[in-house]
Write a structure and sequence with these properties.
Blueprint (H helix, E strand, L loop, with lengths): L1 E5 L9 H9 L6 H8 L9 E3 L9 E3 L8 H5 L5 E4 L2 E4 L9 H5 L6 E2 L6 E2 L13 H4 L6 E5 L4
Antiparallel strand pairs: 1-8, 2-3, 4-5, 6-7
Length: 152
Amino acid sequence: MRRVFVNEEWCLGCHLCEYHCANANMGGVTAQDMVRNLRGKKIHPRIRVEDGADGGKINFAVQCRHCYDPMCVKSCIAGALTVEDGVVTHNPDKCVGCFTCVLTCPYGCVMPDGDGKVVQKCELCLRNKVGAPACAEHCPNRAIVYEERGTL
């Protein structure tokens, strides 16, 4: 299965992946959509860039790793998190906002949505109009890639 991988040494810390993620999950497809969709709004991307503690020398993007045996899915009391074809998906209509999945994700990839009532997470842009993950498509330095690799 294809997954998103990050090469921390190539990450510029530009945060463009966050903006493209937010735009893709708000229905935007093009750069013009991004400007129109995000102007004046607080964004809530499903990926986030952690700036290096060493003065910014190493930055890295954090997003759902779509684990083979996901703790977040096991801990979800409402059944809002499931695995479909290897992708950990979230159904916000079932989510009760207990945030147990937030606490059990060992990578910090499940987070409260913009309203803080339910959670959100990366779903590899499978539900929006983009197709491939927007973060990988628009990373200017190819630090984020969407590809098949050996078993994890």
